[in-house]
């Protein structure tokens, strides 16, 4: 197989499986769905990882690039590629979808439709992480919207219609902000930069050119960059989500079926952080530099607010949903750690944000699976009605306790690494935000330990259907054990993720720093000329 064609196969194999599932008998739909997801996961690991490390990066650090003309009149191309920023998220996506597919095994309502939408959603997510052309990125970004809407709206809980519509409206509003920003940059650049702006492999050149105010002979001013940055940031803050754009998330999680919640928390939220790194910062570096402190502040607010909201919940699933708001705040904190005078801390912030996305992808998937196991048995999620599960379900309780400790950031587990690195990195840029984030770790420990005491320990279970609190099945144990093993492995030895991300992060930080410094030099020169003229 041509290594460059590997990325196209990874992206569109699930879509092909979706078509096949839609046409197959209902009795075999889940077999086709699970087989397709498993094959895609193997491609993202057994095939992609060796090919990535064997390939030589191009001038922009991308590997395994596939490039072909798509809409020639607008220079829109079909371009895919992978680097150290996208690779961990692609592998995470393959894993989370595989575990979610295994969790979906007992879905009996409209199985063909369910599996078709499930697989189409995977194509949208993988394509978003691998697309290098901005138009292609936007198309695949939108592909994620409808499958998730129907997966919540058809297979969700009692208020599924409300939650699905709220999710749809919020995400659509964010997509429109992104579209306006891209069109603005296209118009501001004219035919020269406009045509090139739709090729993400040229982002480093665009950033440097924008920093000097000129690219392909066309000036992109600071005001245009600033407005474009805030539009793109607004889109990705909704997706992340950050306070105050987070209100769709708890409703969507509470009403979504367990496998969909696992995907939503484990993968889809990461598109927000990825978009900021891949689009908002490189396309509008001057606007990003001006707004970095606000990004840090939004991260700190999300951390504290999400933790306090989680502490007030009595619904197990809503608690985990609000904890995601808090944990994704550390991603924003790391992304806001712009310190031109301390580039090592700046790089540490970006690398920590990527690791936090990976770590949260594991812990949030595990926590939502833990909630789903209980809900399938007793059909409620009230924390105050649980208790004594360590005696009734010892294997479940042991794995659930381990995942809870990973989520609260216990050293030696994956949740600790990303939080610690982003807090350290943010200190030179915004000491107060770093201090608030450190306090957020204490709040997280508070609400997680309270949940542990009431669900796994404490008094006897007093809710309904006590007889249904049976041991985990082999399938459930395997899903939970894989997530727990990864939480331990990345907590003890996080180096592989950092080794992959740091070269790409270093290249991005150098590019952004050069753009800002070039703009400062240009403005200083204009000031001197203006003074001489006077």
TrEMBL record:
It is a multi-pass membrane protein. The keyword Membrane applies. Residues 131-444 form the NADH:quinone oxidoreductase/Mrp antiporter transmembrane domain. Its EC number is 1.6.5.11. It is an enzyme of class 1 (oxidoreductase). Keywords: Membrane, Oxidoreductase, Transmembrane, Transmembrane helix. InterPro entries: NADH_Q_OxRdtase_chainM/4, NADH_UbQ_OxRdtase, ND/Mrp_TM. Coiled coil: none annotated. It is found in: Endomembrane system; Membrane. GO terms for molecular function: oxidoreductase activity. The chain crosses the membrane at residues 31-53, 85-105, 125-155, 167-188, 227-249, 261-281, 287-308, 320-341, 353-375, 395-418, 430-449. Its main location: membrane. NCBIfam families: NDH_I_M. Belongs to the complex I subunit 4 family. This is NADH-quinone oxidoreductase subunit M. It comes from Alienimonas chondri. The gene is nuoM.
């Amino acid at each position: 197989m041509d290594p460059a064609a590997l990325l196209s196969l990874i992206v569109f194999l699930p879509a092909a499986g979706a078509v096949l599932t839609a046409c197959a008998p209902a009795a075999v739909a889940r077999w086709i769905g699970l087989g397709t997801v498993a094959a895609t996961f193997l491609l993202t690991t057994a095939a992609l990882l060796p090919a990535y490390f064997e390939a030589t990066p191009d001038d922009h650090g991308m590997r395994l690039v596939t490039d072909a003309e798509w809409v020639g009149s607008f220079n829109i191309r079909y371009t895919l590629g992978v680097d150290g920023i996208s690779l961990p998220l692609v592998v995470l996506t393959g894993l989370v979808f595989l575990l979610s597919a295994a969790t979906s095994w007992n879905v009996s309502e409209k199985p063909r439709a369910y599996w078709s939408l499930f697989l189409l959603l995977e194509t949208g997510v993988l394509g978003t992480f691998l697309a290098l052309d901005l138009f292609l990125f936007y198309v695949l970004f939108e592909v994620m919207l409808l499958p998730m809407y129907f997966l919540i709206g058809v297979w969700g809980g009692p208020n599924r219609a409300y939650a699905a519509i709220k999710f749809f409206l919020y995400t659509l509003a964010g997509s429109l902000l992104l579209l306006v920003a891209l069109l603005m940059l296209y118009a501001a650049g004219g035919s020269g930069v406009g045509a090139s702006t739709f090729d993400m492999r040229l982002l480093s050149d665009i950033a440097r050119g924008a920093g000097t105010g000129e690219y392909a002979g066309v000036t992109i001013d600071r005001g245009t960059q600033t407005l474009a940055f805030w539009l793109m940031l607004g889109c990705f803050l909704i997706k992340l989500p950050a306070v105050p754009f987070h209100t769709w998330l708890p409703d969507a999680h509470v009403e979504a079926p367990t496998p969909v919640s696992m995907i939503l928390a484990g993968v889809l939220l990461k598109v927000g952080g990825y978009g900021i790194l891949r689009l908002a910062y490189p396309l509008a570096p001057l606007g990003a530099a001006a707004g970095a402190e606000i990004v840090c502040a939004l991260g700190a607010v999300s951390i504290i607010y999400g933790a306090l909201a989680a502490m007030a919940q009595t619904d197990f699933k809503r608690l985990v949903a609000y904890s995601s708001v808090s944990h994704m705040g550390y991603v924003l904190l790391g992304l806001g750690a712009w310190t031109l005078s301390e580039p090592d801390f700046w790089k540490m912030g970006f690398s920590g944000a990527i690791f936090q996305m990976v770590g949260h992808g594991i812990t949030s998937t595990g926590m939502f699976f833990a909630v789903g196991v209980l809900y399938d048995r007793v059909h409620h999620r009230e924390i105050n009605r649980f208790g004594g599960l360590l005696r009734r379900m010892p294997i479940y309780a042991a794995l659930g306790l381990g995942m809870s400790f990973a989520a609260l950031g216990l050293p030696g587990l994956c949740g600790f690494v990303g939080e610690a690195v982003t807090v350290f990195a943010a200190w030179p840029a915004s000491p107060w935000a770093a201090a608030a984030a450190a306090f957020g770790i204490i709040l997280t420990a508070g609400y997680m330990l309270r949940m542990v005491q009431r669900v796994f320990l404490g008094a006897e279970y007093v809710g309904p259907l006590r007889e249904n609190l049976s041991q985990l099945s082999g399938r459930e144990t395997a899903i939970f054990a894989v997530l727990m093993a990864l939480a331990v492995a990345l907590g003890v030895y996080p180096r592989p993720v950092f080794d992959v991300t740091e070269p790409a992060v270093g290249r991005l930080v150098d590019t952004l720093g050069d753009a800002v410094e070039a703009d400062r030099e240009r403005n200083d020169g204009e000031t001197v000329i203006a003074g001489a003229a006077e």
